[in-house]
Amino acid sequence: MSNDNANNAIHDAVIVGSGPAGYTAAIYLGRAGYQPLVIAGALTPGGQLVNTTEVENFPGFPDGILGPDLMDAMQKQAEKFGAELVYDDVVSVDFSGDVKTLTLDGGDVIQARAVVVTTGSSYRKLGVPGEEEFSGRGVSYCATCDGFFFRGKPIVVVGGGDSAFEEALFLTRFGSSVTLIHRRDEFRASKIMVDRARENEKITLLTNSVVDRVNGDDSGATSLTVRNVVSGETSEVPANGVFVAIGHTPSTGFLGDAIALDADGYITVDGASTRTSVPGVFAAGDVVDRTYRQAISAAGMGCRAALDAQSYLNALGE
Ligand code: NAP
Asked: How far apart are CA 6 and CA 9, in angstroms?
C-alpha cells in the first residue's frame, strides 16, 4: 500500500510533528514496514527539546544528554527504519473520508490512510501591552536560547511552575539579578526547585504579582509595570530580559473542527488509547497530555499511537 512522497500518492501513515512522540511513532511504524512520512515542521523540527540544554531524566542516559542531541538521535533512528521527513507545516486538514488529506504551507497536499498528530504545544503569551512589541528585543520564551544576551543586566522570569524555576536558576549565570514574578503566593513548581531558588542569593521571588505592561525604548525592554493583586499597588521592576514561562498552548489550530478538541484546544482521545474522534486519526504527546508533559511520557504515547495506527491499517488491509 505504501507509496513514495510524490503528490497524489496515498501514504499508509503520516505523522505530523517531530518531537519525542512523533519520532517514536515513526520508529515503530517504520520498523513495521509502513514507510511513514513525518511532517516535521518548517521552523522548529525536533520540538521543545531542541531548545533545552541538559536532559537528565530520559532513561538510558545516566550522565544526561543534550536535548538537541537526543532529538538528532531519535530522527536518525526513525530514518534508519524508513521514515521520510518533510520540513513544512500543515495548515489545514480534511479528515472526512477514508483517505485523509493534509495541506502544507508550501502548497503540497498529502494523502494518507492513517494520521498521527504529535504537534505538541507552543509557549503561552502574557497578552499584555509591550509583550509583542519587545518580543525578540527583551521579551523571550526560551532562557537557554536568549539568556546569554542579558549578561550583567536585570532579568525577570514570569511564572510559578517548574519551567519558570528552571529558567530562573539557569539565568543566574547571566543576569545581575533574577526576579521571579508569580501571580499567586504558592508555587506549582516542585519543592526542590523552589528550595534551590530560595537558596540562590541572585533570585528574588515576587509573589501575588502580575505583569501589566512591558516598558522599553529603542534599545529594547527596560522594565515591567507590576501590580500586586492583594494590595492593588503597582510598581516598576527593572528588566532588560523578560522570560515568560507560563505554560503552553496545544498546537491544534491547523485542525479546525476536523477532530474533537477539549475546551482548551487539547485533542481528546478514547480512554487510554490514542484514538481521536475520527477513525484513522491518532494523537500523542503534549498535544493530548496536559498533565505529564515529559519527553519520556510523550515518547511512550507515540509508541502507543503507532501500535493503534498499525492495528487500524491491518484491519483496513483485511
Ligand atoms: P505549568 O506547570 O503549567 O506552570 C505554569 C505557571 O504559569 C503556573 O505557575 C501558572 O500559575 C502560571 N501562569 C499560567 N498562565 C498565566 C498567566 N496568564 N499569567 C501569569 N501566570 C500564568 O507549566 P511549566 O512550568 O511550563 O511546566 C509544564 C510541565 O513540565 C510540568 O508538568 C512541569 O513539572 C514539567 N517540567 C519539569 C521540569 C523538570 O522536572 N526539571 C522542568 C520544566 C517543566 P498558577 O500556578 O497560578 O496556575
From this structure: 6
Q: Kindly report the pTM of this predicted structure.
A: 0.77
Using CA positions, which residue lies closest to atom 48 of ligand 1? 188
Q: Is the pLDDT of residue 5 over 80?
A: no
Q: What's the rounded mean pLDDT across residues 186-195?
A: 97
The residue whose CB lies within 8 Å of the most ligand 1 atoms, and thus the one to mutate among 49, 162, 193, is: 162
Burial of 125 (0-12, 13-18, 19+ CB in 10 A): middle
Which of 254, 316, 253, 317 shows the shortest CA–CA distance to 280?
316
CA trace torsion 87, 88, 89, 93 (10° rounding): -110
Nearest to 281 by CA among 46, 134, 112, 156: 112
Beta-bridge partners for 206: 181
Residues near ligand 1 (Cβ within 6 A): 124, 126, 159-164, 166, 183-184, 188, 245-247, 293
